[in-house]
Amino acid sequence: MKVGDQRIHARSTVAVTAMGLGCAQMGSLYRVTRYAESASAFQAAWDAGIRYYDTAPFYGFTRSELRLGTMLTEHPRASYAISTKVGRVMTPDPSVGALEDGYAEPLPFRPVFDYTHDGILRSFEASQKRLGILAPDMLYVHDIGRVTHGERHAHYWSQLTQGGGFRALTGLREQGAIKAFGLGVNECEIIAEAIEVADLDICMLAGRYTLLEQASLSFMDACAARGIGIVMAGAFNSGILAGSNKFNYGDAPADIVARVEALRAACAVEGVTLQAAALQFPLAHPAALTVVSGARNGEQITANIGWFEEPIPATFWTRLKERGLIADSAPVPV
Q: Which keywords does UniProt give here (predicted)?
């Protein structure tokens, strides 16, 4: 399998490549990322055949959209797919500090949650201007759910359902302003709820169906049965499957560390790189449309591409199941 292999979502006809480039790091996630670094990541991805790019207004407080749009609009619009997100309206605010919500040197625009009909449209129109792209292929509702909003979840969920947020997205799709919409979240439960009240096409799910955890397997099966595509993000579970000690954006607990070490040992026996197994595993599920990988620079995305294309023997997946390291019923790469 190559990163540039085309995959088409049947319901929406959206065409993506087997790997996409996630552009949170273009917004200086965790540390400052200079434009030249972002440009090298984009160019290395493009040269390797990657043609799907994901961004959001929240990334760098609009910086990621501005950078990605500058790079993408050098190429014919029909040659790539792009997704961005709604749910936060970026409001001018000179008090934005040097480090906010994990972004270094963010631009002076404060994110304000707004999932209402008008809020969705304001966010979308602002993204069109920043990107220089009138019709992004996919639009994800960003960070809706209890994990993000806690006690305020009901309030924001009401904005999306009763306040016209989903109606706005449906209208954009009907008008041809987008081809598909869904949620972009870190929890599968809210996608399952949304499926019952809105006609979702494609959703982005970060970190919940990975080599390390498959508790969402039945959810993935249900999406496949309904023709809903899932863009797989967070394949490294915040970094622990790529060599760091981070899991779900925090320090990994002891049981997770032990499980990763067992996976690493199994990889060593078969001569497989752990990162390669992590990137390839989620895409084997029939609901999975593509795997999105973030990168700060060209060197990082080149490494990810190498892992994605690394040959892995079928016996490796069999032995993982025999050792109870992945779910017995989980689809595996062929």
A: Oxidoreductase
